[in-house]
Amino acid sequence: MHARGIGGLLTAIGLMGAMTISAQGAEKVLIATFGDPIPAQMAAHNGTIATATGWDVEWRKFNAGPDVIAAMASGDVKIAELGSSPLAISATQDVDLQVFMIDYVIGEAESLIVRNGSGIEKLDDLKGKRVAVPIGSTSHYSLMGALKHAGIAEKDLTILNMPPDQITAAWQQQAIDAAFVWPPAQTQLLETGKRLVGADKVAEWGYPTFNAWVVNREFAKSHKKEVAQFIKTVEEANEAYRANVAAWTPDSPQIKAIAAETGAEPSQIPETLKGYKFLPLAEQAKPEWLGGAMSGIVKSTASFLKDAGRLDHVSDDYAGFITDEYVKQALQ
Question: What is the CATH number of the domain that holds 157?
Answer without folding.
Answer: 3.40.190.10
